[in-house]
Each structure stands twice: as structure tokens, then as C-alpha cells.
Amino acid sequence: MPPNRASHPAEPPSIGGPAAGAARPAPEAGPSTGTPTVYVPEIGTARIVRGDSLWQISRRIYGKGTRYTVIFDANQPQIRNPDLIYPGQIFVLPSDGTAVGTQDDTRG
User: Fold this and answer.
1) Could you list the mean pLDDT of each consecutive 10-residue stretch along the chain, which spans 108 residues?
2) Considering the entire predicted model, what is its pTM?
3) Which of 29, 36, 65, 73 is the most exposed place for a label (fewest CB within 10 A)?
4) How many angstroms separate the CA atoms of 25 and 14, rounded?
């Protein structure tokens, strides 16, 4: 008869620890290693809730509602119409006010 697995409970997985896939800072490169240091900028995001608009988010993040185009440009694959955003969407908020991956062509 196989051993009773219930009598030997497995250790529960660690939540929030290094084993859970937490991000670790990039190791510093020393002069002897010759490997460049990789810097990954922090990415700001916003989760859309009922009543949000790009204008309100822009005013809260950048201080000016007219900068909503920065959010729109950074999230064009998700936003078909800047007047229509939906609860549950998660938008990237470029930190320096420039859109990430802006396109060279014009909208039209």
C-alpha cells in the first residue's frame, strides 16, 4: 500500500519571497568583470476604474490634462478611442512625459 501523503503535508509555497519570482536588482558590474550594468527603469502603471478618463489621469500624474496624449501614445494598442477607456485596463504611464515607443507616422 502506498504511503499516506496526507500525513506528510508539503511545505506551502513561499509568497513574496525570492522563490516567488520577485524582481532582483541587477548585479553591479565591477571593472574586473567587463560586463556592463543593466538599468531597468521603473514602469508606472494605472489601473482604470469606473469614472476615469485620460484627462483626469494625466492631470493627476503629469499636472496637466493636456498631456493625456502621452498616455494615449504609450498605450495605442489598447486604446482605439481616447474618449472610451474601460475599467480593468492597465495603462503604462511614461515617467518623463515622453511616450514609450512612439510611432513616426502621423495619426489620421
Assistant:
1) 50 43 53 73 88 95 94 94 95 70 45
2) 0.53
3) 36
4) 20
Cα R_g (the chain), whole angstroms? 22
Q: Half-sphere exposure (CA, 13 Å, Cβ side) for 90? A: 3
Runs of H (alpha helix) within 1-108: 54-62, 68-74
Write down the pLDDT at residue 99.
47
CA distances from 38 to 12, 26, 29, 44, 50 (A): 34, 6, 9, 19, 38
CB 94 within 8 A of CB 70: yes
- What are 45's strand-pairing partners? 92
Query: What is the separation, in whole angstroms, between the first and last Cα of the chain?
Result: 72
Single out the residue of 96, 95, 92 nearest to residue 46, CA to CA: 92
